[in-house]
Amino acid sequence: MKKYLYLLIALCTLGACSDFLDETPKGTLIPKTVDDFALMMEDNDDYGGYNNTNAGPTIVTMLDDDIKITDSPVKLSRYSQAALRAFRWENNFYTRSENDDNYNELYHCIYNCNYILENVETAQEGGAFTRDYVRGAACFHRAFAYFCLVNMYAPHWDEATADEDLGVPLALQANIYDVLDRSTVAEVYEQIFKDLAVADTCLNETEPYTNRPTIAAVQALYARIYLYQGKYEECWKAARKAREITGEPDDFNQYELYDILGGYEDANPDNGIDGLAWDQYDLPDIIIFKGGGREPNTSQDYNLSDELVALFNKDTDLRWYLFVTDYDYDSWSIPHTDDWRITSLQYPNNPGPNVGEVWITEAEALCREGDIDGALNALNTLARKRHREGTYVDVTERDPDKLLQLILNERRRELMFKSMRWFDLKRLNKEPRFAKTITHVLQGVTYTLEPNSPHYAIPFPLKAINANPSIEQNPYPEPES
User: Fold this and answer.
1) Rounded CA gap, 286 and 270, in Å?
2) Residue 373: CB partners within 8 Å, gap ≥ 6?
3) What digits encode the pLDDT tens for the residues 359-390?
4) Alpha-carbon torsion (75, 76, 82, 88), positive or negative
5) One fold for both 10-203+434-467 and 244-418?
6) Which of 110, 156, 402, 433 is most buried, judging by how many CB atoms fall within 10 Å of its CB?
7) CATH code of the region 10-203+434-467
8) Domain coordinates in residue numbering, the chain
């Protein structure tokens, strides 16, 4: 039953209007109570039905070294042209008439949060939510959105150049007519930390639903940010605070596949996983659910690259057993296509902070700080929950460099297709020992991305630049003739 009156919030093209988005929210939500403002941030059909606070950076899945695209015409047809341009690291992913859903939805989230923060202090008291919670939730969602945007559209954080590197437009008012230049990377991160500081004082340790931010979510996002900034002491401390609230990672040994055809080797995860929730909100290890944007819309064809496949122990790793299949998406009864893909149903691909992430983040930060025992404990605690019971042998490597590589491999397995690998490549390229050249092959043509390429800052959508020429496009080399 609809209890509150909402007017339509929609995205509309403003054409000649000089705002910083190509499409922005138009219309007005009329909330009166604190509860109304809280429900603006909920994906709930009873309260408006449309929100963007769970937006995430899904397009970056097409850019990294975990994915490949097969040449099957049927499979190619499932990808949008924008997704294929991203896969080729082109200078523009979207034409002048196409929407960049990730960009739009993240800024729509920011607009909503700005509106809430400007008005919640004078709202009538509610019954289900506190004013503090609403304030903290809006600050958290805005911080997460800006973290995604600055890592997508700007150079990676560099202490020496962050005050000069161009970041993203920093909108802090619910005014769709603001004309905003790109703020610096340092300014964007400064705002992120301001928002997280507010959220940390306003939120609760736990909430009944995973789309509601908590103190654990704040600390997990702190840990993620500090890792990318290379502030490893702050990182492991934040990660530990988060996992002390959330506990150990989910034990995947409690799950089994439905309809195992011909035994373990022929099991098909597309038939379902016994004991695992079907709703993405309820999948294991979620600290805060972020559903992502709509691009690309082809989760059934997230094929694992050969390099990623080689990182798995296929006999013991339950992430492989439960979530990876070689059955073709259109022919579930026909196994062995020689292309491994993520299952289309219950794979937990949440790009928001997860329990497994904070454990492996703590392991990396401790290893880099020289705490080998602490790093081994965090690494092995996670890995035991991800392998068949009785098959995992604890890592005992004490050489910091060798252990760090083992941790990074585990991180890659744990976070595959959670929109994190692209950001990891950006930060690791800053270290010569981890700098990596990536190749993508599409229809017989090989495309190459060098370490620290300008293309690691993805292009702003042309539609946004047309609406606001103040946005300076990222510089790219001219295509070879």
Assistant:
1) 21
2) none
3) 999 999 999 999 999 999 999 999 999 999 99
4) positive
5) yes
6) 110
7) 1.25.40.390
8) 10-203+434-467, 244-418
Cβ burial, residue 338 (10 Å; 0-12/13-18/19+): exposed
Q: Taking residues 173-189, report their average pLDDT.
A: 92
Helix, strand, coil percentages in the chain from 3-state DSSP, rounded to 5: 45, 10, 50
Helix (H) or strand (E) holding 67: strand 67-68
The closest of 119, 131, 106 to 198, measured between CA atoms, is 131
Residue 221 β-bridge partners:
none
What pTM, to 2 d.p., does this model score? Answer: 0.92
Q: Is the pLDDT of residue 349 over 90?
A: no
Give the domain 244-418 fold: 1.25.40
Place of tokens 């609403």: 134
Distance CA 296, CA 316 (A): 31
Question: Which DSSP helix (H) or strand (E) runs through 145?
Answer: helix 131-153
In angstroms, the Cα distances linking 364 to 218, 367, 472 are 19, 5, 35
Helix, coil or strand: residue 334: coil
309: amino acid identity, one letter: V
For the sheet with 67-68, list strands across it.
67-68, 303-304, 341-342, 324-325
Report CA 226 to chain centroid distance, whole Å: 16
